[in-house]
Amino acid sequence: MASPALSQASTAFEIDAPQISDEQRTTKRHVLLRRAKEIATSQDVLLFLIAFRILNALSIRTFFQPDEYFQSLEPAWEIAFGANSGAWITWEWKNQLRSAIHPAIFAAVYRLTSELSNLLRLTPDYRAELLLAAPKATQAVIAALGDYYTWKLGERIYGKGSSEACAWQWFCSTRTLSNCLETTLTVIALHQWPWHWSLEATGNEPADEYGLREDCGQAEELAKCVPDKISAVVDRIYYQQWTFPPLRFLYFNLAQSLSVHYGRNDWHYYLSQGYPLLLTTFLPFALVGLYNSLSPPNPASATTTLLTTNIKRQLATTSLLVPFILSFISHKE
Asked: How many angstroms from the chain centroid is the CA of residue 230?
């Protein structure tokens, strides 16, 4: 007996439609069963990654950057428990240089954790431990999503069975830095990005390897406008006035160049320190990967498609172009 989910999927993809032949129906059923198996495997991988990153987050007992508190947890504490709660708010927030949407996530976690502690009538010591662990667990889920979509992006580019790993992520990805959330969102965006747009139009929307891709134009339109509106509302609530922190941030760092107060770096900083520090022992492999991605494809290779070549070339170009442009700024991080 077929499961309800499988029956719904069969209806969605018109497997039981009377106008298709038995051979087509059989082929689509095999494709659907294969897709369902892959979904189950993906869910197992995601659950494992969440458990792994929670263990990772709870085992880290050090701090890497003060910003893992001042960019997120301190303003989150203020949002959750009020201006007189003892939060340390830095000058960046007083000058509206950062969006409040990131700390708002942890503020919600703090409030829910506090209410749960009150409901369970926990002692102050246990409540404090729970308040310490809750944002770590939240960031662990964010880091796990980053791992998951990095794996999915790798499979999309290099094929099934590819594997991705980075020791640096154990140290950094579960910290509550805004960059960690940005990294996860960027990886998800790269996985969902319509890479085929950069290819010549063929007249038809390209399908995935199973021929089951559906049009998601309406979802794409929502994805363009909803985050901006949510961010604007959250910033309006936090700052008590309409403001646009990204523009103020650029004005402060570029137009006024006040970021040099925190130090100047040589023009070759990213080349001589940035890449080696972040990649460590992966540096030689990254250089080989960049070279191969920017080199003309081998016509004899049966595994390299035009779309795959295009994706790798765009990612490699971006990886070189962005640090090159940022090298013109005096203050580098």
From this structure: 18
H or E stretch at 18? none
Helix (H) or strand (E) holding 120: helix 101-120
Structure tokens at 82: 């009020």
**Cα of 115 vs its chain's centroid, Å:** 29
**Non-local CB neighbours of 264 within 8 Å, separated by 6+ positions:** 330, 331
CB 312 within 8 A of CB 286: no
Q: In the block, which residue shows the tokens 């869910």?
A: 43
- Taking Cα atoms as reference points, which of 89, 143, 93, 138 lies closest to residue 112? 138
Cα 99 to the center of its chain, rounded Å: 17
Distance from C-alpha of 174 to C-alpha of 169, rounded to nearest angstrom: 8
- Are 77 and 87 within 8 A, CB to CB? yes
Contacts 24+ apart (CB under 8 A), 153-162: 153/187, 153/190, 153/191, 156/191, 156/311, 157/308, 157/311, 157/312, 158/308, 159/303
Separation between Cα atoms, residue 90 and residue 87, nearest integer Å: 10
- Whether 130 and 116 have beta carbons less than 8 Å apart is answered as yes
Q: Structure pTM? A: 0.78
Q: How many CB atoms lie within 10 A of CB 144?
A: 25
pLDDT in tens, the chain (333 residues): 445 444 444 444 454 555 555 555 556 555 655 665 566 688 888 999 999 999 999 998 888 888 999 999 999 999 999 989 999 999 889 888 899 999 999 999 999 999 999 999 999 999 999 999 999 999 999 999 999 999 999 888 887 777 777 777 888 899 999 999 999 999 999 998 888 776 654 444 444 443 334 445 555 665 667 777 888 899 999 999 999 988 888 888 777 766 667 777 788 888 888 888 888 888 898 899 899 888 887 765 545 678 788 888 999 999 999 889 888 887 777
Give me 305's structure tokens. 């498609």
